[in-house]
Amino acid sequence: MPGIEIPRHLLPADGRFGCGPSKVRPEAVGSLAAQASSLLGTSHRQATVRDLVGRLQDGLRQLFSLPEEYEVVLGNGGTTAFWDAATFSLIESRSQHLSFGEFSSKFAAAAKAAPHLAEPEIIVSEPGTHPVARADRGIDAYALTHNETSTGVATEIARPRDDDGQVADGLVLVDATSAAGGLRVDPAEFDAYYFAPQKCFGSDGGLFAALCSPAAVERIERTERWAPAFLDLKIALSNSRQRQTYNTPALATIFLFAEQVEWFNSGGGLEFAAGRADASAAVIYAWAEASSYARPFVAVPSERSHVVATIDFDDSLEAARVAKVLRENGIVDTEPYRKLGRNQLRIALFPTIEAADVEALTSCIDYVVEQL
Fold this sequence. Notes:
single chain; Aspartate Aminotransferase, domain 2; seven-stranded mixed sheet; three-stranded antiparallel sheet; 10 helices; 12 strands; globular
């Protein structure tokens, strides 16, 4: 079948809609290029880079309105490394995990495989929904996920309670990889809110940031269990207090991360950033609800993510073919999460993405479907 060319007037100004790595603002790239000669290729133990790390830490404290006693811990390896590190430094004996997609299941698997930990409690729900945590005296760490990137389900972060309304004693550890910077959160409701910068923060991966409460810091500091140095959060905490990371970091990643945080803060903070994601979510879900061939995958409107939208297609249409045509026209990374195996598109709504571009994307999808 001959190729389909989408009319230029329908195309978005920027065709990047990937759920990670995500769109990087051209302004941030330009700023990096302007400062590259004095930053890239320099020692991460010296003032130039340590000042940059300090800028990032201070910016995150401001963005998330962290109480003064909370600490911003940085480390190499991204969220996957943090899961493994948490099995050594943040889970004492037994954890509870909410599992409702590919990524929320990974931390549960890491805890289950750790030979020094008791069998975790894993509460599972079907993709497109989310389970609810419940307080249990035998649990010392509750593993929540703010946004399930694979399915487009978002949850409200709150400390678990028991049937009598009593708040859980254990630490609340929140995977916020695709949520941080795009969804609202109250620091009082978590002990470790951890994420990587390649989604809402418009940077590259390979780094983790963890916003830690005094309770989380206390557990990290008193844990005597052996851990590989790369996965030892006590070492990560010590280095973060010196405005550095244990291993050499990717300086471009930290720079772009800090630029994005400062852009958010200059615009009005987390409310500004989340508001941009809200605007894009309103566009994509209104279009899908009105469509004759598409619909939101997540049935409950309040659970639909405002940073990752998953849109199902009727069986008469092949979503993968639509994504292929979009890619041929410069609109990239709208394919569904591969392991979910649904006939759908997955579209990032991160704050960097303009709502006008999301609206243009919907027009392009309609045009491609009409041609097919």
